[in-house]
Amino acid sequence: MASTETGAAAEAAESTAGPAADASPDPAAKAAPAATEEAPTAAKPDGSGDLAGLEAGLDALDTSVTDRQPWLRTLVSKAVPPVVAVALVLGLWQLAYHFELKDHYLLPSPVDVARSLQDKWLEGTLLDYVWTSVSRGALGFLASVAIGTPLGLLVARVKPVRAAIGPILSGLQSLPSVAWVPAAIIWFGLSDATIYAVVLLGAVPSIANGLVAGVDQISPLYLRAGRTIGARGLTGVRHVLLPAALPGYLAGLKQGWAFSWRSLMAAELIVNAADLGTGLGQLLEQGRELQDMSWVLSAILLILIVGIGIELLIFAPIERRVLRSRGLLVKS
Question: Which end of the chain has fewer CB atoms at under 10 Å, N or C?
């Protein structure tokens, strides 16, 4: 009888406490279930939730979303700085002419130089001068690539050859190209062979050293992976070594072209014969012989324009494409 009354009292107490608990104004009591439900996704006992969040954050940092800029804005950002620089140089040049820092026959104005270029253009000989030098430079550069590439691979991969020839290549690269002109004249006389010999001796060391530097920067993991899949010998060179060394090799090619162009101008200045044709170097020497500074500055300007044009039109796009394909250059 007593137990029956006790059970009834307990049921009455539970029925009274239930609505009271549900009606509790404490917000913590309501927030507790939500916190309990979100807790597994925020942090798990084994730490995998924190690791997943860290990986997601790193992926977000690595992912760069870039929008292509309008062509007009790109053109302005690329063209305006060099135009401003050229305008500044021309302005300073005109001021020097105006205040006669040198006599006018020694320092002509930009207008006088432009008039000299116009005269050569009207004579129909200007493009011939440019083409003679560009064709010589291109042919000498291609021959330098054909010689410097296998030489660079040999020096980079064969240690005895590197120990024997490596310092010589570095010394030849630092030797001014004009120093080879007297020896080349004695060897080959006043001929095209003299000009091409000077170009080769100036460009080949730069191309070979650039390739050696590119090979030295290859991760050994790539080479081991290539050997594992059977890329050995010439196959490994073609499919593993050269592609991996391409950025350094491309830098060597750019420097090789610069040395080719400079060596060519040095050779054309000295090797001057009627049957050789007239390049920009010979044009510059003719202006010196005639004491015509407008002529001299016109030739210098043409040499500068051709060198910059080759760099911007050929090497710069190739370099951007190679670097962008390897994730080393981000589009902006």
Answer: N
Rg (CA), the chain: 37
Asked whether 250 and 322 are in contact (CB, 8 A), the reply is: yes
What values do phi and psi take at 85, rounded to 5? -65, -45
Contact (CB, 8 A) for 195 and 273: no
Is 262 in contact with 162 (CB distance < 8 Å)? no
pTM over 0.90? The answer is no
C-alpha of 42 from chain center: 45
Sequence-ordered list of residues with C-beta below 8 angstroms from that of 129, at least 6 positions apart, any chain: 120, 278, 279, 280, 282, 283, 302
Q: How far apart are CA 307 and CA 316, in angstroms?
A: 12
At residue 163, what is the residue type? Answer: A
Distance CA 271, CA 185 (A): 8
- Structural tokens at position 184: 């080349």
- pLDDT tens across 140-183, in order? 999 999 999 999 888 888 888 888 888 888 888 888 888 888 88
Tally of helices (H runs) and strands (E runs) in the chain: 16, 0
